[in-house]
Design brief:
62% helix, 14 strands, mainly alpha, 5-stranded parallel sheet, 6% strand
Length: 982
């Protein structure tokens, strides 16, 4: 570090041979402090701390008495300065361990061990960070830089008097800012643009004349898609420099402005991934293992490998493999991907798109998984398909990544998942030829040649057995239609049965009833081969194979499978593992099982052929009961005192038990896809009501943001199914659930329509759950559209319904919503009282999660009362609870409210920082709330003198509000008028 010479050989060793944890250590990057082991030592008067600081900052070198006098008093020392220095030194010597403060040649020195001074440690960490950056290890460099910056604890040398301390304080603060600028530069290089905007907004407010920070802020805004704000920062900077210093911005800033105006592609930089603090740059390696006995396909391997290896420096290479099920598309794609992986050093992504199944993978869900695999934090992943696809392409920009899209339904499913970047490549497999996938290199994969088929069979079964029965082996592969999947399954069966001969297997396949389907194209081409494997199962295995294939969803947990089979978990696990051994079922992870899509179809065909309808329905009903019972338990653990669980359909299953709420919450989110698939599968007479009730029990999936889109799809399907059946109770509940989702995304008009229907259905079905919750949601809608009088009416009715039902938890929710309504009408004192009533109920019930909503509401009321410190305490508590419970959208909304409080308390810099965090995280309320956040951000920036950037925020907010027809548009227009007139 400049200005702080490092002379390791002059440092005195730490006294004695004390263990490291007992050696003294010191801090100067904050208050001057000393510790002996874990005990903090008293350093006495400010002058004594000034003497200690002067010695510590000399790296162990001796300071003469004259130098110390000059450090403490400068040019006007007291008459007894020398005696005072000796007194201070004597007092310090008594406090510090023996041998630490030494006298030498009329001066003094401090013996500090390596790593025992926070400044020296910061220097070492920063040097290592620069080394890591020099070798392009940004992940390590950023981690080390953050550790170095984390050693600061407020103002350096805080409250230490003397000219020397003042000089060093200034120098250390300047160095900290330089480190921050360098680390922020690395953040942008790593693609953490959104996170950087929040921090840079606060820093530019604190250091308005520091042009490097302004430059970084412009770049971060531009890379976050906020070009207008980036240009506004330049305009604000130019005006500020002219007014304060009478100078123009430096050339680098001017050049950046021009490049932004020209949309210079070089400014795009690294992916806008906004990972968690100090997150690692991830190089995914998701390719499944290639089979050790891969056989044949030499021309295809060579052709595809050549295309992939030539991807560098050219437009993305796309190869699409097509063929019937079981022809070996996945095996070939994975093998080629392994061969070519060295050409893609930044990683390989893989996904099974489940295109052959009833519910193919949704592109937005796949993009979310890919973004997480590439190091993007959940909080940075947007909701819409278009935004996720754009972020995905940005993340891949500058990287060389291979993407394998297996089992695609069609080109429309694939297009959003293509990298689109130079140097990247995609391998796609599908049962259809993707002639409408522009620019793709199409490969039609046919069955194996007889020679290749026999070689594959031989490698699995063993050369000795095949050589002695070569003709029978040829008969087997011919009977399999030379389909690789069929050959592999048949050979595996033979290999597992040492008492069989190849002729035995050939004789079994000779029956044309088993073989005809193999000679046809399409899904039935491997039916006879599956029949062969299925026919060798024991009765219990065969039953499990049939029943488990009935469940929708990507996979099944052991507990869910046990419910389907109506068996204890131990017995179910034995059966599942035996099916894994036969290759008819895959174990995706410990305790989780799945079918290949073709095998699932075959299993269902077996079930339909061999099981009566009532037995099939009983199996899926047991799965629904399991999910409903367990989700209801999770719901009840999260919301003590909420009677929702009492209003759900009862089930014979008791569901899983959890030791704590965190484990319960983890289960719910881990099973999200399976639960929603089960709901959709169960929307039929006999199970419809339970499916809708499962929506209610799993409502946290909608509130987290991660599964909200799929939850909305399920609620819409449930609403339609219930309406078609004429089930008023189920339809009313589905409509309330849908309205709750719509409210979260700011679609208040649509939510109001659903709630009007729900209210009528509640009256028809006399369902207290629908009645109370419909009224409560109507109150929320009217709060959001600035109609507090109507909201009060709805909420008072809701409270009455909840009280009559004994539902104290929901009563507390309605009280908090009523608090919001009264607050909007200016009845602040009553609003505070209602929020406290809601908190008291939650406290009595032992609620933690929903307590955040009450604290959020109380924070708003206290803020409007001008009690800003109390408001911030409540809102910060709420934000922490939302964060722990993974309620990302509510966490963002709380940042917005904290920004409002800081702005009201005349702290615009802090307001801007929290507003930026709200934009980065996302908020309950969708675009409507985003516009509100932009409005408060603009206000804060305007107060900070960043007028042009403020106008850019307001213009974007106005566009959103005008598009939605929101009344807030008028307020934003008023904000723009005085600025425009300047």
């Amino acid at each position: 570090m400049d200005g702080v010479p490092r002379v390791p050989d002059q440092r005195r060793p730490a006294p004695g041979n004390a263990p490291e944890e007992l050696r003294p250590h010191f801090s100067v990057l904050g208050p001057v402090r000393a510790w002996h082991g874990a005990e903090q030592l008293s350093m006495g008067s400010p002058q004594q701390r000034a003497l200690l600081a002067a010695l510590l900052l000399r790296d162990g070198r001796t300071a003469t008495a004259h130098e110390l006098i000059d450090a403490l008093w400068g040019e006007e020392p007291p008459s007894q300065a020398l005696a005072a220095v000796r007194t201070y030194a004597s007092r310090l010597r008594k406090v510090l361990p023996a041998g630490v403060l030494v006298s030498e040649s009329g001066g003094y020195a401090i013996a500090v061990a390596d790593g025992a001074l926070d400044l020296a440690l910061a220097e070492d960490l920063w040097a290592e960070a620069e080394k890591a950056r020099g070798v392009a290890d940004l992940c390590q460099a950023r981690s080390l830089a953050n550790k170095a910056l984390g050693l600061w604890d407020g103002e350096p040398l805080a409250n230490v008097p003397g000219p020397y301390a003042e000089t060093e304080r200034t120098r250390l603060e300047e160095w900290r800012l330089q480190l921050l600028e360098s680390r922020l530069d690395m953040d942008l290089e790593a693609g953490c643009h959104a996170e950087a905007v929040s921090e840079l907004t606060a820093l530019t407010a604190a250091h308005p004349l520091r042009e490097r920070l302004r430059e970084l802020l412009m770049l971060a805004l531009y890379r976050s898609g906020r070009q207008a704000e980036a240009l506004a920062v330049y305009a604000d900077t130019r005006r500020l420099l002219a007014d304060e210093l009478g100078v123009d911005p430096r050339p680098g800033l001017k050049e950046l402005q021009q490049r932004i105006l020209q949309a210079d592609p070089a400014l795009a930089g690294a992916p806008a991934s906004a990972p968690e603090p100090a997150a690692a740059v991830v190089r995914p390696a998701q390719l499944p293992a290639t089979v050790p006995d891969f056989t044949g396909r030499a021309s295809f391997v060579s052709e595809l490998s050549e295309i992939l290896s030539a991807a560098e420096g050219r437009v993305m290479a796309v190869s699409a493999l097509a063929g019937i099920g079981g022809v070996g598309k996945t095996t070939l794609a994975v093998h080629v991907a392994h061969v070519a992986r060295t050409h893609f050093p930044d990683g390989q992504l893989y996904v099974d798109l489940q295109g052959a199944g009833a519910r193919a993978a949704e592109p937005e869900t796949v993009l979310g998984a890919f973004l997480r695999a590439l190091g993007t934090a959940d909080s940075a992943i947007p909701d819409s398909l278009e935004e996720r696809a754009a972020l995905y392409r940005s993340v891949l920009d500058g990287r060389r990544v291979l993407v394998v899209l297996d089992n695609a339904r069609d080109a429309a499913q694939v297009r959003p998942l293509l990298p689109g970047m130079e140097g990247c490549a995609a391998l796609v497999t599908s049962r259809i030829r993707m002639v409408d996938l522009a620019g793709a290199h199409l490969v039609d994969l046919d069955v194996m040649s007889p020679e290749e088929a026999l070689l594959l069979f031989t490698r699995i079964v063993g050369e000795e057995r095949v050589t002695s029965e070569r003709k029978a082996a040829l008969d087997v592969v011919a009977a399999c239609g030379f389909l690789p999947l069929a050959i592999r399954i048949a050979a595996s069966r033979l290999a597992a049965r040492r008492t069989w001969t190849v002729s035995t297997l050939a004789a079994k396949l000779a029956d044309e009833r088993r073989r005809l389907d193999e000679l046809q194209a399409g899904d039935l081409a491997v039916k006879a081969t599956f029949e062969l494997g299925y026919g060798q199962l024991e009765p219990a295995q065969a039953r499990a194979f049939r029943l488990l294939g009935l469940a929708d969803g990507p996979d099944l947990s052991l507990a869910a499978a046990a419910a389907v089979l109506d068996l204890p978990a131990e017995e179910a696990e034995d059966l599942l593992e035996s099916l894994v051994d036969t290759s008819l079922v895959e174990s995706a992870a410990p305790g989780r099982y799945r079918y290949h899509d073709l095998v699932r179809l075959y299993a269902r065909a077996c079930a339909e052929r061999e099981l009566p309808a009532d037995e099939r329905e009983a199996a899926t009903s047991r799965l629904l009961n399991f999910y409903l019972a367990t989700a209801a338990r999770v719901y009840a653990m999260e919301r003590p005192g909420d009677r929702t669980a009492d209003h759900l359909e009862t089930t014979p299953q008791v569901g899983l038990e959890f030791s704590d709420g965190a484990k319960a919450f983890d289960w719910l989110h881990a099973e999200a896809s399976c639960i929603l698939a089960c709901i959709q599968q169960s929307l039929r007479p006999g199970s419809l009501q339970r499916a809708v009730d499962l929506l209610l029990a799993a409502k946290d999936l909608a509130e987290s943001g991660a599964s909200s889109h799929r939850y909305e799809v399920a609620t819409r399907m449930a609403r339609e199914a219930a309406a078609a059946e004429g089930n008023a109770r189920a339809e009313g509940r589905a409509r309330v659930s849908l309205a709750q989702v719509l409210n979260k995304f700011g679609r208040f008009d649509d939510a109001a329509v659903e709630l009007e229907y729900a209210a009528a259905l509640a009256e028809e079905s006399r369902d207290p759950w629908t009645s109370g919750n419909a009224l409560n949601e109507q109150g929320i809608v009217n709060n959001c559209i600035n109609n507090p009088s109507a909201s009060e009416t709805y909420l008072l009715e809701a409270i009455a319904v909840f009280r009559a039902d004994g539902n104290r938890h929901s009563e507390a929710s309605a009280l908090c919503n009523l608090s919001r309504a009264l607050l909007a009408m200016g009845r602040t004192a009553k609003s505070i009282d209602l929020a406290r009533q809601g908190m008291a109920i939650y406290g009595d019930l032992g609620v933690t999660f929903r307590l955040a909503n009450a604290k959020y509401t109380l924070g708003l009321a206290l803020s409007q009362a001008g009690r800003h410190p109390e408001a911030l305490d409540q809102l910060e508590d709420a934000r922490r609870i939302f964060e722990v419970n993974r309620q990302r959208l509510w966490q963002g909304a709380t940042h917005y409210r904290i920004a409002q409080v800081h702005f009201s308390a005349l702290r615009p810099a802090q307001a801007a920082q929290h507003a930026e965090q709200a934009l980065s995280t996302g908020c309950v309320g969708g675009d409507w709330m985003r516009a509100n956040v932009l409005t408060i951000l603009g206000r804060a920036l305007d107060n900070l003198g960043q007028v042009d950037r403020a106008r850019a925020c307001w213009r974007e907010a106005l566009t959103i509000h005008e598009t939605a027809g929101a009344p807030e548009a008028a307020q934003v227009r008023d904000l723009l008028k005085p600025v425009a007139a300047v």
